[in-house]
Amino acid sequence: MTAVTIQCCAPIAREPLSETDAADLAVMLKAVADPVRLRLLSMIGSHAGGEACVCDLTDAFDLTAPTISHHLKVLRTAGLIDGERRGTWVYYRIIPEAVNRLGALFAPLTEPAPRSVELELTPA
Amino acid sequence: MTAVTIQCCAPIAREPLSETDAADLAVMLKAVADPVRLRLLSMIGSHAGGEACVCDLTDAFDLTAPTISHHLKVLRTAGLIDGERRGTWVYYRIIPEAVNRLGALFAPLTEPAPRSVELELTPA
DNA sequence: CTCCTGTTTAGAAGTTTGTCGAAGTAGTTG
DNA sequence: CAACTACTTCGACAAACTTCTAAACAGGAG
User: Fold this and answer.
1) Chain B closest CA to A84's CA: distance in Å?
2) What value does the mean pLDDT take over residues A87-101?
Protein backbone atom coordinates (compact mmCIF):
# COMPACT_ATOMS: atom_id res chain seq x y z
CA MET A 1 0.00 0.00 0.00
CA THR A 2 2.93 2.28 0.57
CA ALA A 3 3.37 2.72 -3.14
CA VAL A 4 6.09 5.37 -2.87
CA THR A 5 5.06 6.90 -6.22
CA ILE A 6 8.15 8.88 -7.15
CA GLN A 7 7.29 11.42 -9.82
CA CYS A 8 8.18 14.91 -10.99
CA CYS A 9 11.70 15.01 -12.30
CA ALA A 10 14.12 12.48 -13.56
CA PRO A 11 17.40 12.11 -11.68
CA ILE A 12 19.42 15.27 -11.97
CA ALA A 13 21.94 13.75 -14.38
CA ARG A 14 19.43 12.28 -16.82
CA GLU A 15 18.35 15.44 -18.57
CA PRO A 16 18.65 19.18 -17.95
CA LEU A 17 16.10 20.43 -15.47
CA SER A 18 13.59 22.92 -16.79
CA GLU A 19 13.64 26.40 -15.32
CA THR A 20 10.29 25.76 -13.66
CA ASP A 21 11.24 22.42 -12.15
CA ALA A 22 14.49 23.88 -10.87
CA ALA A 23 12.69 26.77 -9.19
CA ASP A 24 10.17 24.36 -7.73
CA LEU A 25 12.76 21.99 -6.34
CA ALA A 26 14.92 24.82 -5.04
CA VAL A 27 12.14 25.83 -2.66
CA MET A 28 12.15 22.36 -1.11
CA LEU A 29 15.92 22.17 -1.07
CA LYS A 30 16.26 25.61 0.50
CA ALA A 31 13.96 24.44 3.27
CA VAL A 32 16.22 21.50 3.94
CA ALA A 33 19.51 23.37 3.46
CA ASP A 34 19.85 24.47 7.06
CA PRO A 35 21.41 22.46 9.88
CA VAL A 36 18.58 23.17 12.29
CA ARG A 37 15.84 22.30 9.83
CA LEU A 38 17.68 19.18 8.71
CA ARG A 39 17.83 17.98 12.29
CA LEU A 40 14.20 18.94 12.89
CA LEU A 41 13.15 16.91 9.86
CA SER A 42 15.27 14.00 11.00
CA MET A 43 13.91 14.15 14.54
CA ILE A 44 10.33 14.27 13.35
CA GLY A 45 10.81 11.44 10.88
CA SER A 46 12.65 9.13 13.22
CA HIS A 47 10.48 9.81 16.25
CA ALA A 48 8.33 7.01 17.61
CA GLY A 49 4.94 6.99 15.94
CA GLY A 50 6.25 9.05 13.04
CA GLU A 51 5.40 12.32 14.70
CA ALA A 52 6.97 14.66 17.21
CA CYS A 53 5.61 17.36 19.49
CA VAL A 54 6.97 20.89 19.14
CA CYS A 55 7.83 20.85 22.82
CA ASP A 56 10.25 17.94 22.34
CA LEU A 57 11.82 19.61 19.34
CA THR A 58 12.28 22.93 21.11
CA ASP A 59 14.03 21.30 24.04
CA ALA A 60 16.54 19.61 21.76
CA PHE A 61 18.02 22.90 20.54
CA ASP A 62 19.71 25.86 22.09
CA LEU A 63 17.25 28.14 20.34
CA THR A 64 14.16 30.04 21.40
CA ALA A 65 10.67 28.70 20.77
CA PRO A 66 9.87 31.35 18.12
CA THR A 67 12.96 30.35 16.18
CA ILE A 68 11.98 26.69 16.17
CA SER A 69 8.47 27.68 15.20
CA HIS A 70 9.84 29.68 12.31
CA HIS A 71 11.90 26.76 11.03
CA LEU A 72 8.93 24.44 11.28
CA LYS A 73 6.92 26.92 9.26
CA VAL A 74 9.56 26.93 6.53
CA LEU A 75 9.45 23.13 6.36
CA ARG A 76 5.66 23.20 6.37
CA THR A 77 5.43 25.85 3.66
CA ALA A 78 7.79 23.79 1.51
CA GLY A 79 5.41 20.86 1.84
CA LEU A 80 7.84 18.64 3.69
CA ILE A 81 5.96 18.32 6.96
CA ASP A 82 2.44 18.73 8.25
CA GLY A 83 1.32 19.79 11.70
CA GLU A 84 -1.77 19.12 13.77
CA ARG A 85 -2.85 20.44 17.15
CA ARG A 86 -4.21 17.86 19.56
CA GLY A 87 -5.20 19.47 22.82
CA THR A 88 -2.32 21.35 24.35
CA TRP A 89 0.38 20.21 21.97
CA VAL A 90 1.11 20.48 18.26
CA TYR A 91 2.45 17.40 16.48
CA TYR A 92 4.39 17.40 13.22
CA ARG A 93 4.95 14.54 10.83
CA ILE A 94 6.88 14.09 7.61
CA ILE A 95 5.12 14.05 4.24
CA PRO A 96 6.89 11.06 2.66
CA GLU A 97 6.02 11.93 -0.94
CA ALA A 98 7.91 15.21 -0.66
CA VAL A 99 11.01 13.59 0.78
CA ASN A 100 10.86 10.86 -1.86
CA ARG A 101 10.83 13.51 -4.54
CA LEU A 102 14.19 14.72 -3.31
CA GLY A 103 15.45 11.17 -3.10
CA ALA A 104 14.48 10.56 -6.71
CA LEU A 105 16.29 13.69 -7.82
CA PHE A 106 19.60 12.50 -6.43
CA ALA A 107 19.07 8.83 -7.14
CA PRO A 108 22.16 7.14 -8.53
CA LEU A 109 22.31 7.01 -12.29
CA THR A 110 25.24 4.93 -13.43
CA GLU A 111 24.11 4.61 -17.03
CA PRO A 112 22.67 7.41 -19.15
CA ALA A 113 20.02 5.03 -20.47
CA PRO A 114 17.25 4.05 -18.03
CA ARG A 115 18.53 0.62 -16.98
CA SER A 116 16.74 -1.66 -14.58
CA VAL A 117 17.18 0.41 -11.47
CA GLU A 118 14.49 -0.75 -9.12
CA LEU A 119 13.84 -0.33 -5.44
CA GLU A 120 12.67 -3.61 -3.98
CA LEU A 121 10.36 -2.33 -1.29
CA THR A 122 7.08 -4.11 -1.86
CA PRO A 123 7.76 -7.76 -2.74
CA ALA A 124 4.06 -7.91 -3.69
CA MET B 1 33.30 -1.34 -10.83
CA THR B 2 30.83 1.46 -10.32
CA ALA B 3 30.31 0.37 -6.77
CA VAL B 4 28.32 3.47 -5.75
CA THR B 5 29.31 3.03 -2.09
CA ILE B 6 26.69 5.10 -0.33
CA GLN B 7 27.86 5.96 3.17
CA CYS B 8 27.76 8.74 5.73
CA CYS B 9 24.30 9.07 7.17
CA ALA B 10 21.33 6.83 7.33
CA PRO B 11 18.15 8.05 5.64
CA ILE B 12 16.86 11.13 7.35
CA ALA B 13 13.95 9.31 8.99
CA ARG B 14 15.95 6.43 10.42
CA GLU B 15 17.61 8.20 13.31
CA PRO B 16 18.17 11.80 14.38
CA LEU B 17 21.07 13.42 12.56
CA SER B 18 23.98 14.50 14.69
CA GLU B 19 24.76 18.18 14.87
CA THR B 20 27.98 17.60 12.93
CA ASP B 21 26.41 15.53 10.17
CA ALA B 22 23.62 18.07 9.83
CA ALA B 23 26.09 20.94 9.46
CA ASP B 24 28.08 18.91 6.97
CA LEU B 25 25.11 17.98 4.84
CA ALA B 26 23.70 21.49 5.01
CA VAL B 27 26.74 22.78 3.14
CA MET B 28 26.05 20.42 0.27
CA LEU B 29 22.33 21.10 0.34
CA LYS B 30 22.83 24.86 0.41
CA ALA B 31 24.95 24.50 -2.70
CA VAL B 32 22.13 22.72 -4.44
CA ALA B 33 19.33 24.88 -3.05
CA ASP B 34 19.42 27.45 -5.80
CA PRO B 35 17.59 27.26 -9.14
CA VAL B 36 20.64 28.32 -11.14
CA ARG B 37 22.98 25.88 -9.42
CA LEU B 38 20.45 23.07 -9.70
CA ARG B 39 20.24 23.63 -13.44
CA LEU B 40 24.00 23.91 -13.71
CA LEU B 41 24.43 20.60 -11.93
CA SER B 42 21.80 19.01 -14.11
CA MET B 43 23.33 20.38 -17.30
CA ILE B 44 26.79 19.18 -16.35
CA GLY B 45 25.56 15.74 -15.33
CA SER B 46 23.40 15.15 -18.34
CA HIS B 47 25.82 16.57 -20.88
CA ALA B 48 27.37 14.23 -23.42
CA GLY B 49 30.58 12.74 -22.06
CA GLY B 50 29.60 13.58 -18.52
CA GLU B 51 31.23 16.98 -18.64
CA ALA B 52 30.37 20.46 -19.80
CA CYS B 53 32.40 23.50 -20.72
CA VAL B 54 31.82 26.73 -18.84
CA CYS B 55 31.19 28.49 -22.13
CA ASP B 56 28.16 26.27 -22.84
CA LEU B 57 26.84 26.77 -19.33
CA THR B 58 27.21 30.54 -19.46
CA ASP B 59 25.31 30.79 -22.72
CA ALA B 60 22.36 28.88 -21.28
CA PHE B 61 21.57 31.55 -18.71
CA ASP B 62 20.67 35.19 -18.72
CA LEU B 63 23.47 35.88 -16.26
CA THR B 64 26.95 37.33 -16.52
CA ALA B 65 30.04 35.14 -16.65
CA PRO B 66 31.20 36.15 -13.16
CA THR B 67 27.87 35.05 -11.72
CA ILE B 68 28.05 31.63 -13.38
CA SER B 69 31.64 31.33 -12.24
CA HIS B 70 30.56 32.12 -8.70
CA HIS B 71 27.86 29.44 -8.75
CA LEU B 72 30.28 26.88 -10.12
CA LYS B 73 32.66 27.73 -7.32
CA VAL B 74 29.95 27.12 -4.73
CA LEU B 75 29.23 23.72 -6.25
CA ARG B 76 32.94 22.94 -6.40
CA THR B 77 33.59 24.03 -2.82
CA ALA B 78 30.72 21.83 -1.68
CA GLY B 79 32.42 18.88 -3.35
CA LEU B 80 29.66 18.28 -5.86
CA ILE B 81 31.60 19.00 -9.05
CA ASP B 82 35.18 19.14 -10.18
CA GLY B 83 36.70 21.30 -12.89
CA GLU B 84 39.67 20.91 -15.18
CA ARG B 85 41.22 23.26 -17.70
CA ARG B 86 42.09 21.72 -21.06
CA GLY B 87 43.58 24.29 -23.36
CA THR B 88 41.31 27.23 -23.80
CA TRP B 89 38.30 25.83 -21.99
CA VAL B 90 37.43 24.66 -18.51
CA TYR B 91 35.33 21.54 -18.16
CA TYR B 92 33.26 20.56 -15.15
CA ARG B 93 31.94 17.14 -14.21
CA ILE B 94 29.80 15.77 -11.41
CA ILE B 95 31.33 13.90 -8.47
CA PRO B 96 28.86 10.99 -8.26
CA GLU B 97 29.71 10.00 -4.68
CA ALA B 98 28.60 13.41 -3.43
CA VAL B 99 25.31 13.29 -5.27
CA ASN B 100 24.73 9.74 -4.09
CA ARG B 101 25.19 10.89 -0.53
CA LEU B 102 22.24 13.23 -0.95
CA GLY B 103 20.25 10.49 -2.60
CA ALA B 104 20.88 8.20 0.33
CA LEU B 105 19.78 10.86 2.77
CA PHE B 106 16.34 11.14 1.19
CA ALA B 107 16.02 7.50 0.22
CA PRO B 108 12.56 6.10 0.89
CA LEU B 109 12.23 4.37 4.23
CA THR B 110 8.92 2.63 4.50
CA GLU B 111 9.81 0.54 7.53
CA PRO B 112 11.73 1.79 10.58
CA ALA B 113 13.73 -1.44 10.62
CA PRO B 114 16.38 -1.84 7.91
CA ARG B 115 14.52 -4.13 5.53
CA SER B 116 15.96 -5.51 2.34
CA VAL B 117 16.33 -2.27 0.47
CA GLU B 118 18.81 -2.95 -2.28
CA LEU B 119 19.84 -1.11 -5.41
CA GLU B 120 20.23 -3.57 -8.26
CA LEU B 121 22.91 -1.79 -10.23
CA THR B 122 25.63 -4.35 -10.72
CA PRO B 123 24.00 -7.69 -11.55
CA ALA B 124 27.46 -9.21 -11.02
C1' DC C 1 -13.28 34.08 34.51
C1' DT C 2 -8.29 34.12 35.52
C1' DC C 3 -3.91 32.22 35.36
C1' DC C 4 -0.51 29.31 33.30
C1' DT C 5 1.79 26.71 29.63
C1' DG C 6 2.54 25.78 24.71
C1' DT C 7 2.82 27.75 20.20
C1' DT C 8 2.65 31.29 16.64
C1' DT C 9 2.99 36.08 14.79
C1' DA C 10 5.26 40.68 14.34
C1' DG C 11 9.06 43.56 14.13
C1' DA C 12 14.04 44.49 14.43
C1' DA C 13 19.18 43.56 14.25
C1' DG C 14 22.98 41.35 12.22
C1' DT C 15 24.68 38.16 8.77
C1' DT C 16 24.77 35.74 4.44
C1' DT C 17 23.78 35.45 -0.44
C1' DG C 18 23.05 36.55 -5.50
C1' DT C 19 24.20 39.64 -8.80
C1' DC C 20 26.83 42.99 -11.18
C1' DG C 21 30.90 45.83 -13.29
C1' DA C 22 35.82 46.24 -13.27
C1' DA C 23 40.00 44.23 -13.19
C1' DG C 24 43.09 40.15 -13.13
C1' DT C 25 44.94 35.46 -14.86
C1' DA C 26 45.49 31.77 -18.48
C1' DG C 27 45.96 30.12 -22.93
C1' DT C 28 45.80 30.74 -28.21
C1' DT C 29 46.90 33.10 -32.32
C1' DG C 30 49.00 36.51 -35.33
C1' DC D 1 55.34 40.61 -27.87
C1' DA D 2 50.56 42.13 -28.65
C1' DA D 3 45.82 41.19 -29.13
C1' DC D 4 42.05 38.31 -28.31
C1' DT D 5 39.02 34.95 -25.90
C1' DA D 6 37.78 32.18 -21.73
C1' DC D 7 37.38 32.23 -17.08
C1' DT D 8 38.10 33.84 -12.21
C1' DT D 9 38.73 37.17 -8.45
C1' DC D 10 37.53 41.58 -6.20
C1' DG D 11 34.57 45.00 -4.31
C1' DA D 12 30.02 46.70 -3.83
C1' DC D 13 25.13 46.62 -2.92
C1' DA D 14 20.25 45.08 -2.52
C1' DA D 15 17.56 41.19 -1.15
C1' DA D 16 16.92 37.30 1.69
C1' DC D 17 17.80 34.75 5.90
C1' DT D 18 18.50 33.52 10.96
C1' DT D 19 17.85 34.83 15.30
C1' DC D 20 16.05 37.48 18.98
C1' DT D 21 12.43 40.02 22.12
C1' DA D 22 7.77 41.34 22.79
C1' DA D 23 3.26 40.37 22.19
C1' DA D 24 -0.68 37.66 20.67
C1' DC D 25 -3.41 33.31 20.38
C1' DA D 26 -5.08 28.50 22.07
C1' DG D 27 -6.22 25.27 25.39
C1' DG D 28 -6.34 23.31 30.27
C1' DA D 29 -6.68 23.92 35.36
C1' DG D 30 -8.08 26.26 39.49
Assistant:
1) 19
2) 97
